[in-house]
Amino acid sequence: MQSPLLTAQEAAAYLRISLFTLRGWTSRGLFPVVKIGRRALYRLAEVELVAKEGLESLTARSKHGRGHGSN
5, 26, 40, 67: which could form a disulfide with 61 (CB 3.0–4.6 Å)? Predict the structure, then answer.
């Protein structure tokens, strides 16, 4: 089952970070997104993982081949 998708504003609010910070992580490839047209959306499961374990949890997963990457 696919995880629900959040807008950048929703993901930033969930993580209690600025939109600027989230977009910086995204542009550096630290936070995977789902691209639909020109929109970058964030998987709720990955946002929850970062909220619980920190950004390093995503970078560790992608280094071990378990990350989702961008679509």
Answer: 67
